[in-house]
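Listing S7. Sequence submitted for prediction.
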Amino acid sequence: MTRRHGLQLAVGIIVTLACFAAALWGFDRDDYVEIASSFRRANYLTLPALLLLLTVFFWLKAVRWALLLEPVRPENPITARQSTPSLMIGFMGNNVLPAHLGDLVRVVVLGRQFGISKSAIFSTVVLERVFDVAAILGILGWGLATAPDAPREARQTSYVLAAMLAVGLIGIVVYALKTVWFVRTTEWCLDRTPLVPAGLKRKAAEMLESGALGMAALRNARLAFWVTVTSIVQWVLNVVMIQLSFHAFGIDQPTSVAAIVMGVVAFGVTIPSTPGFFGVIQVAFRIGLAPFGVPPTDAVASSVYYQLVTWAAVTAVGLYYLHKTGMKLTQLERVAEESEDVAHTASDHFREIVKGDSELREGGSSGNA
């Protein structure tokens, strides 16, 4: 483990402990007894449905990734079935490695398997995050606007989220159609934004430039449509999975409340924490359910059920595919370290394209890193 990864892990441990403390704040011995009792009474008939939805969720992720990768190798497109092993190894890596290194792992694994530019693959991962944020914002806003007995502040927040989503969607369209102008204009604005650390500005600029290489997918109406649809359906399925976790522990709340919890969880796991996001998900469930009168013990119990099922299933499938590649778990961090310069490489690639041509050509993402 490098010194930087060690520091990231140390920060993650501190954050995780703080989240556990917040999730369990005010609990006494009787509360822990109640949580244990909740697990004895839980409806585990929800488990098959939860696993089925999780399977479809990741199948849709594989389908979307294959769509985004299509312009990278148009002569022989990668299928969802072919992208699944790398995808699952990457998400398993996020469960066992610090600092979301699993995202870098899957870039390297897929690049090695098909001999594709890692910078081009990395650009599709960046675009995935853009669509995930847009879908999550939309579903969270719907939940806040329609949840029964939601606080007035929640309704107001839903309007803010709707405005953010509208601006974001316009930004995505401009990003796709006028990529160079959008990136350069955003970088110009970042350079003149006070109080934002220079490192954060540099990171944001690199992410924009990296994602620009994958914009060919969004300039194709068919690909853009199906990427959008699969993004929305994925997160709707995640909402249903959370609602099943509610049902398993007798939490009687509508889908709109599950959508709110999904949104809190989705943004919560972006903060630095230990692999697997333990503690973060517990406090996210408690925060999301608190306005609706759900006892903290029930919120924590359902969060543990949801997390353990999804973590165990994803890790097991990822380890299976890792074994099929002939790699060992101990090699994953070295693979991630190998790919840490991918963002820089993708950024440099983008600048080379801009230098030679004022607009990104559709095939610009297929060059070798």
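Caption to Listing S7: primary sequence and predicted structure tokens for the chain studied. The two ends are 26 Å apart (CA to CA). The chain has 15 helices and no strands.
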